[in-house]
Amino acid sequence: MSLLQDILYKVHLEQVIGSTNIEVTNVQLDSRKVESGGLFVAIKGAISDGHDFIGKAISLGATSIVCEDMPAEIKENVTYVQVKNSHEALGYIANNFYDNPSQKIKLVGVTGTNGKTTIATLLYKLFTGLNYKCGLVSTVQNIIGTKALAAERTTPDAVSLCALIKQMVDEGCQYVFMESSSIAIDQDRITGLDFDGALFSNLTLDHLDYHKTFDNYLKAKKKFFDELPAHAFAITNIDDKNGGVMLQNTVAKKYTYSLKTLADFKGRILENSLTGLEMLINETEVHFRLIGEFNAYNLLAVYGAAVCLGEPKDEVLRVLSMLSGAEGRFDYHVSSSKIISIVDYAHTPDALENVLSTIKKLRKGSEKVITVVGCGGDRDHSKRPIMAQDAANQSDQVILTSDNPRSENPYTILKEMEAGLNSAGKRKTITIEDRKEAIKAAVKFANPGDIILVAGKGHEKYQEINGVKHHFDDKEVLKEMFELLEK
Ligand SMILES: CC(=O)N[C@H]1[C@@H](OP(=O)(O)OP(=O)(O)OC[C@H]2O[C@@H](n3ccc(=O)[nH]c3=O)[C@H](O)[C@@H]2O)O[C@H](CO)[C@@H](O)[C@@H]1O[C@H](C)C(=O)N[C@@H](C)C(=O)N[C@H](CCC(=O)O)C(=O)O
Ligand SMILES: Nc1ncnc2c1ncn2[C@@H]1O[C@H](COP(=O)(O)OP(=O)(O)OP(=O)(O)O)[C@@H](O)[C@H]1O
Ligand SMILES: N[C@H](CCC[C@H](N)C(=O)O)C(=O)O
Ligand SMILES: [Mg+2]
User: 214 and 261: one domain?
Assistant: First the structure.
């Protein structure tokens, strides 16, 4: 329990009606979860307006309300706090309510279009390997020590996030590695957290449905670095066009990593094959189990962060060389008839291009590349035609299929993808809406030595159709089809 006046520390107040000298027992941004003695923060969202649920929150026992607009009806025994920005206020309130857990551990955040999960997961595995108890907040899962919890989003809302970090602190974690998605940064889900370090991977096309312009998307990522404290470190990929911009206005200690130019953490790829990466990192030669140039970047970022956190370089490289990546990221399998299948979470044009160019470089001879790919519904439309053509550019055969159609008609999504194909692309592409049938067709088309890429869903264990999540697992379906067709 805490006093409302303490919980409001750092919040920009406009007006207060009622006493702030009252106890708050729970903080909620969803009226349906409010319990007796609760503080309800009304947020204007994309779908609904939390201000419409203030009455409901009070009927469930809320005694404090934080809002941008004062309601017409003011109830006795309820304290109303008007703020300029409810999202930002919620960030500070959540941190104060949970007693600022991020100040009690080392917290490192990762942002960028692609690579966040990989980098955060590798950091978690590395520091666990260095004998620390660690927490992970990621798209695939959240982990406290060795206990895995399901993750609903990449970066949870401010209340769930602070509660999670508090649990990590209470259970003795010394480090927390987390993904900071651009949407979460924009919605102040990470406002008020005390970061010790931040990493930037890259910025390419995604989430324009939400951010509207590339400039807004860039600004959301940059806000993370602009708000870092001076004691934190900030590491950027200087080979990315926007890598420098990210650190322009930060007061944190600045570091760079690169595969192409001089940098604090400099890497060079000596060999890139299906057995892994042979790299020179700041003059030390190391072999890694991860595959592909994009993972060379991820490994450099992880190495840089570990060095910034004071770990001995040789020990970092020794542990890092033994690690595998995150589930569903370049997840590689060879069937009994020697057909190679790769499940990868590439769901942006850049990621798809990277995965396919990695596959291309790994090909030895005349093996065919068969790509199965779709695009998610209720997400950025602009990436759909581009991803179809990207797939066609670097594959011998493309099967367009459904990803998570969500509330959209899957055929509309597929039509938008097909519209991006040039005539050569059209000739090698077929569309099979049913994802299971699409994977089956790919396995049928493949001969020994050929490579099947199933892109877009990676670790996901479901397919979301009209608000219902049906069990679906690309790796499981591939296995089933190999068993069925290779008998
Ligand atoms: C577009 C977006 O990010 N939406 C998120 C956002 O919703 P919103 O603010 O628009 O909420 P809303 O539904 O309009 O409701 C407004 C407010 O009214 C409240 N409400 C609503 C109904 C009610 O009865 N009572 C009530 O109090 C809601 O709790 C909310 O506070 O805030 C909600 C609470 O945190 C999130 O659940 C919701 O995530 C939706 C489900 C989502 O799909 N988000 C995705 C796009 C997302 O966040 N992705 C990123 C990036 C992914 C990546 O690249 O890895 C992520 O970090 O996961
Ligand atoms: N550094 C990188 N640069 C470009 N592409 C990458 C990089 N790292 C991974 N990828 C590709 O992007 C896909 C997603 O990687 P990852 O899950 O690590 O990214 P993410 O930023 O967490 O994505 P999301 O925002 O959806 O959670 C991978 O499956 C791979 O195809
Ligand atoms: N975190 C990303 C994941 C996309 C994964 C893809 N399978 C899809 O459903 O579009 C998002 O919510 O936009
Ligand atoms: Mg992620």
Answer: yes
Nearest to 432 by CA among 378, 376, 373, 484: 373
Task: Please tell me the predicted confidence (pLDDT) of residue 1.
Answer: 56
- Both 124 and 71 in a single domain? no
Which residues, in sequence order, are bridge partners of residue 373? 400
- In whole angstroms, give the CA distance from residue 114 to residue 389: 19
Q: What residues form DSSP beta bridges with 406? A: 465
Distances (CA, A) of 360 to 17, 341, 395, 423: 65, 14, 9, 22
**Cβ contact 361:367 at 8 Å:** no
Greatest distance between any 2 Cα atoms in the chain = 78
Is 250's C-beta closer than 6 angstroms to any atom of ligand 2?
Answer: no
Ligand 2 neighbour 351 (Cβ under 6 A):
yes
- Cβ neighbours for 160, distance < 8 A, ≥ 6 positions apart: none
What's the CATH number where 276 sits?
A: 3.40.1190.10
- Return the residue matching tokens 């550019």: 393
| CA–centroid distance, residue 253 to ligand 2 (Å) | 25
**Spatial contact of 28 and 41, defined as CB atoms under 8 Å apart:** yes
> Which residues, given as ranges, of the chain have pLDDT below 70?
1, 205-206, 487
pLDDT of residue 207: 73
CATH number for position 355? 3.90.190.20
Whether 256 and 131 map to the same domain: the answer is yes
Nearest to 381 by CA among 214, 221, 206: 206
353: domain range? 331-485
Ligand 3 atom with minimal separation from the 154 CA? 1
The model's pTM is 0.92
Distance, in Å, from the CA atom of 257 to the CA atom of 112, rounded to the nearest integer, reads 14
**Residue with the nearest Cα to atom 26 of ligand 1?**
30
What are the CA-CA distances from residue 119 to residues 236, 294, 352, 451, 482 (Å)? 13, 11, 18, 26, 31
